[in-house]
Amino acid sequence: MPTSLCGKWELLSSINLEGYMIALGIGSSTRKIALKLKQHKLIEQANDKYVIKTFSTFRNYVFSFRVDEEFDEFTKGLDERHCKSVVTWEENRMVCIQKGEKKNRGWAHWIEDNKLHLELYCEDQTCKQVFKRVA
Ligand code: ECB
């Protein structure tokens, strides 16, 4: 079994969030705000159902899914697009593919050195985030 991603996590670092947001078509004023945010994540699991909540003082983004089951995702408060998304485990990585208007879109979470890692990608841009455990 992969190490649990569950718990509360606080953002330590982001690399190329700007490029990722540009790929998503986010305007410059929103990008400026988003770059300064201290994000938190709360990841919860009950059997095969997960809830991932991303919080900030500006906007929150919450969604839930079952592993291996495609679902309709609306990225409300982010780029506001509809995707057909599916989350799977690839070894110790939780991988999401977000099929929709944007090519090559998705993300992956994994634990390394007791930290939560996240790669967010869209088109030719990848954003890398690292979170530390706070609960
Ligand atoms: C929700 C906190 C960030 C709010 C930023 C607001 C506006 C910027 C609009 C779009 C930028 C896209 C992403 C910002 C970075 C992270 C937000 C959540 C990324 C995400 O989809 O995480 C996955 C994996 O944990 C769960 O959806």
Outline of this structure?
The protein has 135 residues and is mostly beta strands.
Shape, principal axes of CA atoms: globular
Helix content: 10-25%
What class would the helix/strand composition place it in? mainly beta
Radius of gyration equals 14 Å
CATH superfamily: Calycin beta-barrel core domain
Q: Might you state the CATH topology name?
A: Lipocalin
CATH class: Mainly Beta
Q: Can you count the beta strands?
A: 10
Q: How large a portion of the residues is in β-strands, by DSSP E?
A: over 45%
User: Which ligands accompany this protein?
Assistant: ligand ECB
Terminal CA distance reads: 21 Å
Low-confidence stretches: none
**Which second-level CATH architecture applies?**
Beta Barrel
Query: How many structurally independent domains?
Result: 1
What's the order of the H and E elements?
Answer: EHHEEEEEEEEE
Strand numbers in spatial order across the main sheet: 4-3-2-1-10-9-8-7-6-5
Largest sheet: 10 strands, antiparallel
Q: How many distinct helices?
A: 2
Protein name: Retinoid-binding protein 7a
GO molecular function, one term: lipid binding
Domain Lipocalin/cytosolic fatty-acid binding: 7-133
Organism: Ictalurus punctatus (Channel catfish)
